[in-house]
Amino acid sequence: MQMKDEWIQEDNVYSNPLLRLTITGLKYYGILLYKSQPWKKLHCFRGVFFTASMLAFNITQYVNLYQVWGDIAEMTANAATTLLFTTTIVRVLHFYWNRTRFNNAIKTADEGIMTLLRSGSVPEQAVIWENVKYMNRLTAVFWACALITANSMCVYSLIQYQNLKSMDLSNSTNSFDSPTILRSWYPTDNVLDSFAIIYCIQLYIMYVGQLIVPCWHVFMVSLMMYAKASLMSLNLKLTRLDHYEISEMQSGCQKKGCQHSLRRQLIVECVQQQHQVYKFIGELEKLTRGAVFMDFVVFSVLLCALLFEASSTNSAVQIFIDICYIMTMTAILFLYHWHANEIHYQANLLSNSAFMSDWYNYPLSVNRHLLTFISYSNKPLKMKAFFVSMSLDTFLAILRASYSYFTILKQAAG
After folding, report:
1. Helix or strand or coil: residue 255?
2. How many CA atoms does the CB half-sphere of 213 hold within 13 Å?
3. 19 secondary structure, DSSP code
4. What is the reported pLDDT for 107?
5. What radius of gyration do the chain's Cα atoms show?
6. 3-class secondary structure, 3
7. Within the chain, which residues score under 70 in pLDDT?
8. Rounded to an integer, what distance in angstroms lies between the CA atom of residue 69 and that of residue 104?
9. Alpha helices (H) along 166-255
10. What pLDDT does 366 receive?
11. What is the model's pLDDT at position 333?
12. What is the structure's pLDDT at 71?
């Protein structure tokens, strides 16, 4: 397996406070490597093996879905995890295919954050650290939700198995759920006798999923957070241009011409920073739009399946698992659409921030670049998944569609 430079990420990315936690997870999965990492081929093989095993398992889930086709209860019990695994595998394969572009996006975010932390003003640095703390809290909450859901499913499967072992199944007329973590097809009908093997296989797949699902989504959100933080620092800089001039002029020329030259230079820097951030957001949109559009199509069905399963079971534990599962899936949707909405909001503030500066103290020859900046900032900046806008309205539309599908399914099942 030949290792190319496009697979390799710079070491200093792992010291970036905004990206460190999320990228570490991708490193352990084996799809993101760095230059000083030993045994690169072994780590790369681990990532390929994890992905291949998830793909093989996902195929067995579709086999099971085909076998129970027509039974609404069995289909909905299968659909949620099957669709989640499918979207996750597509995302990982998309990363493999576009690894150079992803590495460039990581490098751009790393350089941007480190530049602001090294040479930005104190308020700009405060903006970055505020977003770092927010990202750390968000990562902790999302990981906790995902881990509670997945491990509850693992423990509940063991409890089911112990309960079934103590029952006299030959004389029982009641139906029972198969004591497996995930719905899948195996070349055996005797699940109880083969429980140990089936459980270990599904436990392995579950823990691989627990590693990549939270890591991937938090990783993508961290890139969106970089775009938001950059726009926030740019808004702050535009409203405080006079403070930047004062700090620069304390050690330089005090003449009026020198002041005008310094103001012109600051405005040009703002225009360049805006162009870089907009370019990064455009590239990030291209990298995410396919997966987010797939979520737009799939997650309505996924949430509908979870709602139906929660409403159909008599087990309090299963209801708890379904609620946690729904919260995790809803959080994934919310993370993308909320932060895309935040990027749109911060971009819309740029023209107002530029207008709030003391532009009236300078001639038109100095403010010409500022007028160009304001004109460019008036163009709406919205991240889209092809023709679907990434916004809170879209997020609410997906939830409404899920509930509509759920009510239709309940009527059909009833």
Report:
1. coil
2. 28
3. T
4. 87
5. 26
6. coil
7. 1-16, 21, 34-36, 168-177, 189, 245-257, 414
8. 44
9. 195-239, 241-249
10. 83
11. 92
12. 82
For 48-83, b/e burial (b = at least 16 CB within 10 A) is: eebbeebeebbebbeebbeebeeeeeebbbbbbbbb
User: What's the sign of the alpha-carbon dihedral 22, 24, 30, 36?
Assistant: positive
| 190 vs 154: CA distance, rounded Å | 20
- The CA–CA distances, whole Å, from 112 to 108, 117, 285, 287, 374 equal 6, 9, 18, 19, 22
Residue entry with tokens 């009510």: 407
Sequence-distant (6+) residues with CB within 8 A of 133 are: none
> What pLDDT is stored for residue 29 in this prediction?
87
Pairing of strands 33-34, 8-9: parallel
Distance set, CA 228 to CA 217, 221, 335, 384 (Å) = 16, 10, 13, 16
* Amino acid present at 97: W
> What's the pLDDT score for residue 168?
54
Under 8 Å between Cβ of 76 and 280: no
In this prediction, residue 279 carries a pLDDT of 93
Please return the burial class of 41, using the count of CB atoms within 10 Å of its CB with bins 0-12, 13-18 and 19+. exposed
| Cα angle 221, 227, 233; round to 5 | 130
Identify which of 78, 67, 64, 3 has the alpha carbon closest to the alpha carbon of residue 33: 3
* Distance from C-alpha of 241 to C-alpha of 109, rounded to nearest angstrom: 24
Q: Are strands 388-389 and 384-385 parallel, antiparallel or unpaired?
A: antiparallel
SS3 195: helix
